[in-house]
Specification:
The chain is mostly helical and 483 residues long. Among the domains are: 77 residues, no CATH class; 55 residues, no CATH class; 83 residues. Helices cover 77% and strands 0% of the residues. Helix 3 packs across helix 5, helix 6 runs parallel beside helix 8 and helix 23 packs antiparallel against helix 25.
Length: 483
């Protein structure tokens, strides 16, 4: 990655509050002009910058100017977060103790040292505690005090860190299997079972500290997910959430991690599926959004996606228009900060919600935001799903002549990009027959045959992905009931 690209990405990763703070912190320094210019560039263009600032002295050594700006941003961010990051707080307090010790203020050290250790235990800063113990041993040696208990404490901390490390290692291997290789191959199943035989996966093997138990729940969350036990996977994640809620350490030290954890909880509850658990997780997400300051982009992603799912779970779309208005406002508000993936996923999710509400015209409007997007070819799979759902919407609206054209157009799109699979072929051929059906009886037979064909191929893990995007089988079942 080029250094200039990094600077551009760094500036565009800042929140509006952080950008405002940087400019105030910089006090009108000359490099703020460069900051603003890079901030205004959707894509980094160094030649345009040099031309814009050709009369400024810093263009004589543009690389040095960029480096200076980057360091100024980091200084401002460190200052902005000072006192917010518990790791920084404990580091500064330890340095202060060392200064007091060097100045010979022994009584002050004796008074503050236990408080610092208690702080680090509260926030489970075990590596920092090892540093503190090293300092405490040095302090005791100078006063000819025994370190026997400190050595025992040190060994215990090392064991705790080791436990967490091993548990995270198991979790990492399971995640690798889940994301890269699947879990149907016999050798992978054997590897999974070997990993799960680790004696640390029993609570009694641990000291019972929250960080250990958090890592343990993480392992069981992904293990049960791999095995297809989605309720058990959800319950493991729920225990993890309850653990973090007991002392609120995570929300204080790693608020973004807490938001992501709750997002996973809501998603798992939806996939069980369990309406009461989904409502519980959704309420907790709303509470967390109130407690955590910042991360507005992430909050929007969660509220937009899970708000639409909430309508489905409740089978109540009366608030859909209000929720879509919220989505539209925040898409504009966070323009430039939202990734293309998230943007198009949002369009698709809104379209699906309107389809479920049977407002097929609006469903098509939101699908067109994907199909007509200037960067639509960068998200070919979501384009594919949008095209398939569009066929269903036009069928519902009885746009049969247009549907004939859309089927041909979709077939060409998929063939040209080598995207189609057996699911697409079956669905598209089924629609070909549907628009030519002579009467209701023939239509019903086509739907029955189409449903049977989709059911057969949906048993394949790869084909299940199509059904996850939209409930095609449920839709066909609904059509079969319309006799």
């Amino acid at each position: 990655m080029a250094h200039s690209d990094l600077l551009h990405q760094l500036i565009h990763s800042l929140s509006k509050t952080e950008k405002k703070y940087f400019k105030e912190f910089s006090g009108g320094q000359n490099y703020v002009k460069l900051f603003d210019a890079i901030n205004d560039q959707p894509e980094y263009d160094e030649e345009k910058l040099k031309k814009k600032f050709k009369h400024e002295a810093f263009t004589n050594n543009f690389s040095a100017a960029k480096k200076y700006l980057e360091e100024a941003i980091f200084r401002a961010l460190r200052n902005f977060n000072s006192g917010k990051l518990m790791d920084d707080v404990s580091y500064e307090r330890l340095q202060n103790l060392k200064l007091l010790y060097e100045k010979g203020l022994i009584s002050a050290v004796e008074k503050q040292l236990p408080k610092l250790k208690a702080f680090c235990y509260e926030y489970e800063q075990f590596p920092r505690l090892l540093e503190i113990l090293s300092f405490e041993m040095q302090f005791n040696n100078s006063g000819i005090r025994s370190n026997e208990k400190l050595y025992e404490e040190r060994l215990r901390l090392i064991k705790i860190i080791s436990n967490i490390t091993y548990l995270n290692q198991i979790y990492g291997e399971l995640i690798l299997i889940a994301t890269n290789r699947g879990h149907n191959i016999k050798s992978e199943n054997e590897r999974i079972e070997t990993l799960m035989q680790n004696p640390l996966l029993k609570e009694e093997a641990l000291y019972g500290l929250p960080d250990e138990l958090y890592a343990l729940r993480n392992v069981f969350f992904v293990y049960h997910y791999l095995m297809g036990n989605f309720r058990e996977s959800y319950l493991a994640k729920k225990k993890q959430f309850e653990l973090t809620s007991q002392n609120n350490v995570l929300i204080k030290t790693k608020p973004k991690t807490q938001l992501l954890l709750i997002g996973n909880l809501v998603s798992l509850a939806y996939n069980i599926p369990d309406a009461s658990e989904f409502e519980f997780a959704y309420r907790e997400m709303q509470n967390a959004h109130t407690q955590v300051q910042g991360f507005e982009g992430l909050k929007f992603e969660q509220r937009s996606t899970f708000g639409l799912l909430y309508c489905k779970v409740k089978q109540d779309y009366s608030d859909l228009e209000q929720h879509v208005k919220y989505i539209e406002e925040n898409l504009r508000k966070h323009e430039g900060d939202i990734t293309l993936v998230r943007e198009m996923d949002t369009y698709f999710n809104v379209a699906v919600a309107y389809f479920r509400k049977k407002d097929f015209g609006k469903a098509i409007d939101w699908l067109n935001k994907i199909l007509n997007h200037e960067r639509t070819d960068e998200r070919q799979q979501i384009n594919r799903y949008a095209r398939l759902l569009e066929l269903l919407a036009h069928y519902e609206l009885k746009n049969f002549e247009l549907l004939d054209y859309k089927i041909t157009n979709t077939q060409r799109y998929l063939a040209k990009r080598n995207l189609g699979d057996e699911f697409d072929k079956v669905l598209l051929n089924g629609f070909r027959h549907l628009i030519k059906a002579a009467d209701k009886k023939e239509t019903q037979k086509i739907f029955q045959d189409l449903k049977s064909s989709i059911q057969k191929i949906s048993k394949d893990d790869l084909q299940k992905i199509n059904e996850e995007q939209f409930e095609y089988l449920n839709w066909m079942e609904e059509k079969l009931k319309q006799k």
